[in-house]
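Sanity check

After download, print the first record. It should look like this:
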Amino acid sequence: MIRPRATFASIAAAILAIPALAGASPPSDLEICEQHLARSPGEEAPALCLYEAAAGNGPSRAAAARRLEELAAKHSEDPWLLIYLGRLKWQTHEPGEVQKAADLYLLAAGMAGRRGMPAAEFEARSSLCRILRDAGRLNEEEAEIERAVQVAESSGLPLLGLRANILQALHWHAQGEFEQAFQTLSRIQGAVEAGSPYPVLRQHLFALAKAAQQTGRFHETRQAYRLAAEKAAAAGDLGWRAQAVYGIASVSLEELIEVPSASGRQQVLELARHLLDAARAAGSPSLEAQALWMLGFLGGVGEAASHLERCYQVAVTPAERSFCRSTLARRLAGTDPKRAKAAIQEALTLAKQSGSAQTQVMAWSNRMRVSWALNPPGIALADARAALDAIEALRDQQSGSAGQPGLFSTWAEQYYWLSGRLLKAGDLERAFGVIERMRSRTLIDSLGLSGRSGRNSSISPASLEQVREALAEDEALLSFQVAPWKDLAGDFGGGSWLLVSTRKMTRVYPLADRTGLRTAVTAFIGMFESRDGSEANGSAVLYRKLLAPALAKLPPGVRRLAIVPDDYLHRLPFGALRPEPDGDPLATRYEITLAPSVTLWLHWRKARPKPTVTPAVVLADPATSVTRGNTVRLRPLPHARTEGESVKRYLDGSEVLMGEDASETYIKKRNMARSFGLIHFAAHAVMDEVNPDRSGIYLSPGNDKEDGLLQAREIADLPGLDSRIVVLSTCESASGEILRGEGVMGLARAFFQARAHTVVASLWPLRDDYGAALFDRFYHHLGEGKSVAAALQAAQLDRMNDGAPAEAWAGVVVLGDGDRVPVPGGRRSSLLPWALGLGLLASALLVRHYRKG
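Expected structure tokens:
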């Protein structure tokens, strides 16, 4: 833990407050430290004093550093001297010095352990953990954390116990376990605030704020940063106060970039002004540059240039200066082309010097926008492609990382912007290619279809020509893109559009922007719970906003829709939309299939296996599940067993596993899935939108090695699911975190990663009896030889005719390849008993005839 420089200031102030003899000079920094050394050798205070003098900007800086080196060499048995010398070396961030710091921490930990100094040992081990974490050596850090936790527990010191929790939370944050980090830090918040020293409180609040921000809890993020700013101000710690103010401003900016508003823009501008004051008071040029960048990015064009010029002057690193210059170029593109060209060229040079891929992406993205404003279309398009190449190169560097989809989604706005520009210009073909280049790229990579995984098979982003060739006369493709019409700076944001293709034509329709659509979709979904038909009005409103003009111009023979949603439209039950409140829902007119991208939709259609009658396997109503050592008592699902019997009744040769037999062990068998063409889960599920990989389906464990929760990351590795159909009669199986460009990060996606081609899932929690009734009709129609999408449409019509509320049928959707036919020609095998009977009768008559002869 780095102690604040204010600690030294408070010590010095206390000493200087003692009345001095007339004419005596105040003691120097080094003299104060020597007094500490004389009074309390072997304790923390002398080492801390020397470290703060050496790390500060006073005249004794070099002498204090030499003295700390000298004492650490002379008193190598003193762990505090070793710890603070290590901290001084770590602060340089030079690889060789950082390694020396790690060695010193390790030596100090061993020495403190032998001398029975738990506070020093914990400090040394926690400092070593930071070095390991920064280096990405998380397994080594985890082992070191275990030792630190043992020290804290055996010491009996409450403060060390709290710090151990913070240390563990920081490790989980580095692993991407943001929710676990947030919950741990929240649990100890009261104890930390009750009486912890300021440095511990500060570390806790900043860790809590970052975990809250990563989990989308923006209100809690601001609260933590505000408290950190207050505590830092009270402690006279101007540097960390400025960091806290920056945190408040940055989270507000992040929240508003996705959904811009004029009032939000003014709020962030005000926060940026506060940050500027705080940064100057703290003497932090980096934070001053950040504040000036925000003011230049969001302020009026007239004042933007002066803020961004000042930003460039105070910036410390090439990366910071590149940010200032590329944003200046963007703001000047419409008023001062010559200056804008010079600024963007300098930004690209600085970005390359920085060695930071993210800085280079920012520079290229701003160059794309500047080029579009200043250059002919051919040059602008070339620059735009270069920008997308830079974004994708950064994304590829994160290959295999759990954070890769999230990282890519932060740059999705560039794709929306470029596609929107092309659509405004009437260039539908290129616009469609840009959006398809963005959609579901990590899913495509994980399936080995992009060529980046080293596999031979690869596919390019779909083109409109390929779409029109693939569509039948009775099909239409609806591809959405949802973005703001104006971004937070007031510039063009890409806009929301619907692109519609049939076999003979492609048209595009502008839509309401992201903010309006999110509000409308959220309100509409909330209406279903009442089960009184009140959603009809909302369905008509959304129909007019999204579909009315497009569907009115479709050829009369179209009866199948393939829909590629975007943003909150992934949560929308399209089948429930209707042209008028008293009109028929869309599900009465069309078979509807949803797909994460057109590219994948075309691939699944082309890779469709030969039609064969294959049986199903059902895992229904699993027994009590044991998860992470805790017994989870699951509410029984009696209607889930009814679902299993429906599958067995309508699809001959199917197998139903219930209770203890519906196990995680069974589903992970290598040859299990290959025996069945369809897999049906009727079980409880858990959705984790913060950590999607931890979403899962509750099953029976099956053996001591399994925990009974089949998590998304385990689903993605299931063997034998190639081209299979998966039916998820579980809660919210089609929902999850929505990432721009990637789609829904949930259970359905995990089954696609396992190479399934078709997933039937639910957008919201489905009541047990509702699920049983709907899926009984679904399997009845599948058994008649209908496709998956046609069977679902027929089942939904049956439930409407039964008088069931929309909540009971509208939330179940088909994802992927909805035209799959699991039982080609219908249940021919169901005629077998009659055929056998007739055959036996004929045989008996023949035998009788010959006997008579």
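If your output differs, re-run the checksum step. Summary of this record's structure: The longest helix spans residues 95-115.
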